Amino acid sequence: MDAKPGAELRLRTQAVQMPMGHDAPRNGLVGSIHLSTTYTRDESYAYASDHVYGRADNPTLRQTEASVAAMERAWSAMLFGSGMSAAIAVIMALDRPSHVIATASMYYGLKRWLAGIGRFGHTIAFVDTTDLTALAASIDARPPDLVWIETPSNPLWRITDIAAVARLAHAVGAVVCVDSTVATPVFTRPIDYGADLVMHSATKYLNGHSDVSAGVLAAARPSDLWSRIAEARADQGTGLGAFDAWLLARGLRTLAIRVKAQAASAATLARRLVAHPAVAEVLYPGLPDHPDHAVALRQMTGGFGGMLSIRLANADAALAVAGRVRLWRCATSLGGVESLIEHRASMEGAGPFCPDDLLRLSVGIEDPDDLWADLDSALHGLGAVDAPDDPIRVSPTERGVAP
Ligand SMILES: *Cc1c(COP(=O)(O)O)cnc(C)c1O
To answer: What is the pTM of this model?
Structure first.
């Protein structure tokens, strides 16, 4: 396979230079948005390029896809109208029946959807994939066709060892897909660790400005599965629209510097929160006592991401803090330049992977001292608490909770 243009550049350079393309006829520095849904034939009934019709594909979309593929060191990438749309495209392209193993600690919207794939003739097992013994047992019990992992995982920020999972999955011929939304290619490139597919909610960090809904799939190499996903996307027209692809391209240009600033601030806030008497537990993979810190050190380069969660005395304390912050905005979603705080259990219901005393923090690019001052004042007046009875340090399997 020939090297793709830009593949040899470092990510930060790729991010700045590739997404905007080139406005060829006029040499505009910033590429234009191509909106045409159809392309004319010439006198000999030939097309000027391989573009024919807009449902399948579009030059702006392709440009943004090439940039994302280069950043992930992927063979190819496709953009969809949302992260969910990208994830669902993988499942819908599987042969039937297929068996899927998915990480038990993962984005709730997708977990809920995956729980219902029986209606498409598939079976699903949710396993704590940070526990490789549990994963190996599940693979032995029923060899999967697809292993779906999310790392860091939402909202506990558990780290799954991609290389170890790929070894176990590939031994039985299963495809490994990694939801790398939170890591971004800046901190982890799953294909380097053996992943076959990478998925992102580009609504989050890749776009970074809370104004585009988009999803990414990237593939390490060509495969029948990838061709089926591409065909279905072309037939259904579920590719990202040109305007949104252009906005995403603009967001990508600052990805590397945005997420590094966010991770640095998240690390600062995590250290300060650990020392706060009203905070029972801080969940951040960059902290030395995080249960997966050693894996994070191996697998994440240059930072541990901009997401962290804190656990307070109880749900009332968590909701009180969410109600008192001023700079942090109370909203769902993550990865934008603005800091958000969310009581996840209000959204997804409490469970072993989402305690009701937990607040999820998406750290933006504001001054970390301002973010700290706002949090500190919101925490003020809450009594001191002990570590929780069910600390995240102890895996759910050890706690006796079935994942
Ligand atoms: C938001 C999110 C998704 C879903 O993406 P949408 O763009 O909202 O469809 C999937 N995985 C993770 C980790 C997410 O944070």
So the answer is: 0.95
